[in-house]
Amino acid sequence: MDNVLNKEIKEIIEACPEVGRILDEYGIGCVPCSVGSCLLKDVVGIHNLDPEREATLMYRIEKAIYPDRDVPKPVVDATKKAAPKKISYSPPVKKLVDEHVLIKRLLALIPTIVDYIESSLNVDKDLILRCVDFIRTYADKYHHMKEEDILFKYVDENAEIIQIMYKDHDTGRDHIRQVVEGAEKGNKAQIREHLLGYRELLTQHIKKEDEILYPWIDRQLSTTQVGEMFRRCNEADASVGDELPRKYEKFIAELEEKFLQEVTK
Amino acid sequence: MSGCPGSRTIDFSEKTNQEGSETGKRPSQLRQWPIQMHLVSPHAPYFQGKDILLAADCTAFALGDFHKDYLKGKSIGIACPKLDSDQEVYVEKIKSLIDDAKINTLTVIIMQVPCCFGLAQIAKEGAEKASRKIPVKQVVVGLEGNILSEEWI
């Protein structure tokens, strides 16, 4: 089993799709991952399952890969569903989780915005560029930069999960470049494809961070590091001023009001 | 079994579950004096920029590994929210620890008895009055020395 633990998850699932289905049952969503280069041992470790569930999961994976092998069954109730763990974040990480909420409010509006653009005679370039400004300034500069410059520095930046987060950030930036190009050209199809692509990417990205990555990082932080990270994040926020988050909260509220009216027309 | 849970008589001397090692000597992790909240000064050098443990008196006796698991690497102030007088002084000292000593974090460790939560309240009040903001953690210790909860508040 040790050689399997050190294999990339994508390779394991390709060879034995049942492993993907088993992982999915445990809330470990590796199947749709675009990278899949995490090692099986890291995938299991990062999800912080209770020991009984982890033992059952490993038993089922080993049986799926080696059906003829005599694997000792763990003495646990395999059908027992453990109560979901309440996630408790440290204060600096909680602040990052709270910032996701505003980003998710924009993501929720994107399908309506895309429909509005498609049904309009001319592309509302101003609206698109204001959304792009929110994404580039609030989501990317204000939020992602704190992750990249501060949070990720407290763990091994070469860890696969961190590399996936960096890749997601870059893919998101590519989508937004395409949205701007679409707006400049008046290309509705290009705007639609890349706004929806950004929405899908960030929805999964935020879910991974809130449920897996942030708790994993929090488990590794000492009390001293929590205090230090809290101070560094506060300094980063102070460098852009209190006005920036307030400005974008107001923007999202106005956008919600505008598109709520569009939907109810 | 009536009366205040903080002073109710409970005898667990027959407890047989005594896992752990008694071999080897454990060094003290205390790095300062004094430690009582009325006696310490927020301007003492051992508080400057440090992680602080605000411990209810009884916790050090209840927790077998108090030094190793909670005191190590921290400076400390101890208090009893049930018996100590002039506790408004504690609020001001915590405020001063945050604003003047610029402490990094504050961990409040209390017993599970209801009156002990008064110390967590004192810590919250001090932190709310301070102009700087720092992470504050609450650790609740069971009467038999088990950790009941540990969370940032």
Count, helices of chain A: 11
Hey, roughly how much beta strand do the residues of chain A contain? under 5%
Low-confidence spans of chain A? none
Looking at the structure, the CATH topology of the largest domain in chain A is Four Helix Bundle (Hemerythrin (Met), subunit A)
Give the overall pLDDT of chain A as a whole number: 88
The termini of chain A sit apart by 60 Å
Order of helices and strands of chain A: HHHHHHHHHHH
CATH architecture of chain B: 3-Layer(aba) Sandwich
Distance between the termini of chain B: 32 Å
The named CATH superfamily of the largest domain in chain A: nmb1532 protein domain like
Strand order of the largest sheet of chain B: 2-1-3-4-5
Largest interface: A-B, 14 and 12 residues
Radius of gyration of chain A: 21 Å
Structure description:
The complex is a heterodimer of chains A (265) and B (153). With 265 residues, chain A is mainly alpha-helical. Chain A has 2 domains: 2-65, Orthogonal Bundle (SP0561-like); 91-264, nmb1532 protein domain like (Four Helix Bundle (Hemerythrin (Met), subunit A)). Chain A has 11 helices and no strands. Chain A has helices spanning 2-5, 9-15, 17-25, 40-46, 51-65, 91-119, 125-149, 160-185, 188-220, 223-240, 243-264. The termini of chain A are far apart. The mean pLDDT of chain A is 88. Chain B has 153 residues and is α/β, with parallel strands linked by helices. Chain B has one domain (45-152): 3-Layer(aba) Sandwich (Rossmann fold). Helices cover 23% and strands 20% of the residues of chain B. Chain B has 4 helices and 5 strands, in the order βααβαβαββ. Chain B has a 5-stranded mixed sheet with strand order 2-1-3-4-5. In chain B, helix 3 (88-99) crosses helix 4 (117-129). Chain B is globular. The mean pLDDT of chain B is 93. The chains are: A mainly alpha (265), B alpha/beta (153). The A-B interface holds A 88-92, 94, 223-224, 226-228, 230-231, 234 and B 51, 73-74, 104-105, 107, 133-135, 137, 151-152.
